[in-house]
Write a structure and sequence with these properties.
Rossmann fold; single chain; 10 helices; alpha/beta
Length: about 210
């Protein structure tokens, strides 16, 4: 049995996924988390074999949580779960230390296979992400952003205010505004509307 923690902020999805994995008789779901911070705490306490981590999480998103997870040195392998179809998120996840990147459009058998593969020490990476990993970081416009700038850019593109972003990321409004300024400068954009258009054009947000 592979010991798994599921980190997903939508309760119905998280509990349904847990039931399906348990019903396979191949997975032991030892913990669940609703935020990125909880996910890191669960891994520290339970030391599961595999963590299923949603990329879009409150408090600390999946990509940002990867650095904290690596620092724990528990040996837990992380699979990022995502609804995003672009390769940029996948590249950030794998470069951040994830062992796998699985889209939520996958079926249960595909997810089970991914869990078993990363547990064996393999990596599970979609072909388009694998191809993008071989390119220079500058090949995708968003790769010039830091992890935090990328987070802020996504929230701004989704219409969140600086204050809302500050509360979600537990940083000051001034810091959010600083990151926003860096995003605009690095991507050569003028305002939040441009950020939203950029995100849609480059597949960085579900539409």
């Amino acid at each position: 049995m592979i010991r798994v923690v599921i980190a997903e902020d939508h309760t119905l999805i998280r509990e349904a996924l847990a039931k399906m994995l348990i019903a396979s008789h191949r997975i032991d779901v030892v913990g669940q988390a609703a935020t990125g911070t909880e996910a890191v705490a669960q891994v520290s306490r339970l030391q599961p074999d595999v963590l299923l981590l949603d990329v879009s999480m409150p408090e600390k998103d999946g990509i940002a949580a990867l650095a904290d997870l690596a620092a724990l040195e528990t040996g837990t392998k992380t699979i990022i779960l995502t609804m995003h179809e672009d390769e940029a998120h996948g590249v950030r996840a794998i470069r951040g230390g994830a062992a796998g990147y699985v889209k939520k459009s996958a079926n249960l058998d595909e997810l089970l296979a991914a869990i078993e593969r990363v547990h064996r020490g393999e990596r599970v990476i979609p072909e388009e992400v694998e191809a993008a990993l071989g390119k220079k970081r500058s090949d995708h416009p968003a790769q010039v952003l830091s992890s935090r700038e990328f987070q802020v850019m996504e929230y701004l593109a989704a219409g969140k205010t600086n204050r809302e972003i500050a509360e979600m990321l537990a940083i000051s409004v001034k810091t959010v505004d600083t990151h926003r300024g860096h995003v605009l400068k690095k991507l050569r954009l003028r305002n939040n509307s441009d950020i939203t258009r950029f995100a849609i054009q480059h597949g960085l947000m579900p539409v």
